[in-house]
Input
Amino acid sequence: MDVLHDNSLRTWVQLGDAHESLIPQYVMQYNLPDKEAASKMEDGLFADDARRLFPVDSKEATWLSAAYFAKNAEKLPYDAPERMYVEEIIKDAAAAYDIEEDVTAIMNAVQTSELEKSAEDDDSNYGWIMIDEKTGEVLARKYPMFDGRGVKLASTYFDENRNHYPLGIRRAIARRIMSKAADYGMDTDELSPSVLKEAGFGIPRKDVLMQEILERAHLTKDAQAAILLANVNELIAGLSDREIGGNLDKIAEVIDAFDHGADLTRYYGTRILMPSDFLFDVNLKTAQAAVEDAVELDKYLFSLDKLAELPLRVYEDVLGDDFAQAIIKTGEENAQVIDKAKLADNLFSLPRPDKAALEEHLAELFA
Output
């Protein structure tokens, strides 16, 4: 629709309400041609000459056509090349009438508003859609995320209010926030840690997990429930890390239900943690970095970063000068600086007895 077909002037009123400051005085003083006069205009005086839409016979008409085109072009049956063609005709006319700045300002403003409106109507841009279970009607849209800034705001708000939501809703909102962050190319480090934990983006420390369950056994007033929790702890103690990791969502649901049934949620943040805060405590990126940094000697795992920071003599005393020379950085022999990559390669290829000897030496030095 263009200005000539806006019979009720509904679109013109919308444009005026939203962008009054951008309407030039010459447009405000313009008298639109009536339909009879418009019907006598030549086809070439329309940006869309085939449909006789968007008149460009004057600077006033051109400005109005620019505004109406920006608002309605997506609703018209244009393919991409035709839409670009009509837009170029309008912009060429604006240049001819020396009103390019006015036209650019209104088109940018209207197109931005339309994009925002479109985003507001898209349920995928919200973290939580509240729906009436009986009617299926959308009651509210919460956690709007139209851009990266919106994602950060949603993350902060979720961190402050997550304790008010049931587990299922917490999980859904957190995962939606993470999904939108990925859409906008954001790193997970830009989100609140609570979002990652509630989304299940982490792993537990087994000792902390067992301690949290034990504390719940102490807090509950139900003796049978306390015994049940103690049995659960024994079960977890016998599970492998892989078995625990494959059941974290289910464990979270069980503990969350127990906390609410036993009225233990009042102790969150004081005596006990929210389930997600200990079940998904270790960020997956942190865990991956720790795995990549770990090196096994005999009985224990050591941090390669820490081993590379040790004095070279630690290795000379146990493994000899040849090993020490093999792990220093090239060209820096005098500085005796350990190359972490060379250290990793040489530790990996060490015979088992030498690894055990180094581990025993480290234990003696730092016990």
Observations:
- The radius of gyration is 34 Å.
- The longest strand covers residues 138-144.
- The beta strands are 46-48, 53-55, 126-131, 138-144, 202-203, 282-283, 294-296, 301-303.
- The chain has four domains: 3-120, 124-198, 202-285, 297-366.
